[in-house]
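Give me structure tokens for this 446-residue protein.
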Amino acid sequence: MLKKIKILIATLLISTPIISHAVCVRVINTTLLTADLISSGYTAANWLGACHATCGGKLGLPPQISITTNNSFMPGGTLLASASASFLTGAQSTAFTANQILFRCALADADSLSEVYTAQSYYPFSGGTETTDIESAYHTYVDGVAVRLTNQKTGKYFTGRWQSRKLTSEDWVQDDTYIYIPASAFSDVYVEVFKTASKAITGITTTPYLYLYAYDAGFIAFRGPGLPSACIVDGVLESANICGWYDNWPGSFGLYNDVTFVRGAMCMVKEYPSVVNLPTISNSSLNNGDTSQSTFSISLSCEDSAVSGVGNVGTVTASSVVAMGFLVNQPSAVTAATNLGLQTTSGGITHLLDTNYDSEGVASGVGIRIYGESGNVLNLLPSKTTRTGNAGGWYAYKDLTTSQGDSTDGVTTYTGNFTASLEAISGQTATAGTVNAQLQVVVSFQ
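Here you go.
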């Protein structure tokens, strides 16, 4: 009887199935994709991961950011610049495509997949030192400048501790065997650059300074069974938990070699109209050379020691002269103007077009021109790229405004009067419809 029991137990042990564990793998070429997946438009390619500095993409911030040391004129908490950084173009120096597969996991992994994100807490000037005056903003290598990152799918700020967002079937594509994680599954990041009065740490004051501190502000990684990054734990400091760095972290966000900081006495926009309404006019009148016009005023607050100018056109060296301009802040309007040849040789835009130019119900063949108080037509900025001169849309601020003689604590108000004029575009025929365009006044060091 005992012998039979032993044989029975042995038989049971031999027939027990081996349990396999689900495992995710990093995808760097199409060998892990099925023919059906490829025919559906999905692809794969080698990607580097978050290897610091040279691996990061472009955040979309202006190439030059101005800052003054006068804390009463520009107090801590002042927003210097912001941008929505697409994961596809901002996370890696070589852009992802939306349908590029980055990871493959077994179907059994479906409940164990997440995006994890963090500010870099390892280095004191890159997420390692939080400011004392701005929530979840971290000191940079530039004195008085802080960066804050926000995950645009969760709405939460990046902090020095890991956070996660669980991925669902809406984020991935799957077949009968595997789950495939495309680049589109990951979050875009909202980037804010602030002036901070925090003295928790002191950076450099060199001006101009092209940001060459070679450490990123934050990361996005993928956590799935079997990956080196699987041991990332929510709530733990990034500096103490760098599992899978760097090739399993597809997102790397920082300022390296992308932004130049210029420090000096400067101006800020004080007052401007939120809306300028133009009187209704017929397309026949426009085709006959008539215009529809409205005037508006803009005021600047300028430090008395600010220098009015446009800098050295064509150079790459930033200076502390201050210029102003009107920025066409809708890319579609810039594209439409470019397609119509409404550009100067320096890239300035001559006419402001409707945001939805060429769409149904929108007037075509017409654009808005901006005139200064002396009647001179102004070129418009297609971007915040500096040192392009008047032809590129930049003007010395004293050329467009007049001092109001109200200097207080070293700051004076300058006011300029302008005219917005709806006109037929030369060589085009004005058609009936609405015109709704957007323009932003900007001041910047050159």
